[in-house]
Amino acid sequence: MTIAITGATGQLGRLTIAALKSRLPANQIADQIVALARSPEKAGDLGVTVRAFDYAQPETLAPALSGVKKLLLISGNEIGSRTAQHRAVIAAAKAAGVGEIVYTSLLHADRSPLSLAGEHVETEAMLAASGIPHTILRNGWYAENYTGAIPSALEHGALIGAAGNGRISGAARADYAEAAARVLTGTDHAGRTYELAADDAWTLGDLAAEISAQTGRDIPYRNLSVADYAAALVGAGLPQDLSEAIAGWDADAAQGALFDDGRALSRLIGRPTTPLADVVRAAL
């Protein structure tokens, strides 16, 4: 059975391929895993078959999916272009005879207030209309989305955000990758939608306290208004549109948009999700 992964050189793609390799016999890895990448030269270290896969050239997508039985469609990173890109991939998968698609969606996409949700809902609808058996992995926030701010927090002596006391069920990216690998190598997941999140939720105040404990420094959490947080991100060099989006996601998190206590992720991977302390330790 050949399994292909889009966005294979991205952070989630690489971790998913590593998880797949750990679940397959060594003599089957090269033949059974296909890394699909816009820049194939960046995938040479993955140790699997590599094929060029560029959303901007939709006519090339179906040939790249030849012989693929299961496809992991990792949602694209070009916000605003993802619906069209995903539509092209689904059409190519159908033309190539792909047997099953696994899609990385967003936690509670059908009711999420996050601005990201719309393209995920549209993609889920396209999958339903395609007739291709599929599984939806509604991934919660990556804990690394926030631990990525640790260097700045240490430099400036505070962790900033606009999420208030909102509880965030953010799991390690590797946990989501393990879930994808288990679904891709399993046999009874088609037709299911999984709401995936960490076992234990935390606030940005909790994150600041963990950073403080592990560094021996006093790193408080400073809650800003959405406008002030967006301005701080612009000041740090992020584009205006992205800064406003990130600040808006924090505002949604303050209202519970990133919280889930269903523990479907730990059940799927067969172990507790990675504790926040471990994610912080890895980031440090």
TrEMBL record:
The segment(s) forming the NAD(P)-binding domain are 7-184
Enzyme nomenclature, EC number = 1.6.5.2
Q: A Pfam family name for this chain?
A: NAD_binding_10
**Which Gene3D superfamilies did the record assign?**
NAD(P)-binding Rossmann-like Domain, UDP-galactose 4-epimerase, domain 1
Which controlled-vocabulary keywords does the entry list? Oxidoreductase
Q: Annotated Gene Ontology MF terms?
A: NAD(P)H dehydrogenase (quinone) activity
Q: Which domain of life is it from?
A: Bacteria
Official protein name in the record: SDR family oxidoreductase
Q: Which organism is it from?
A: Paracoccus mangrovi
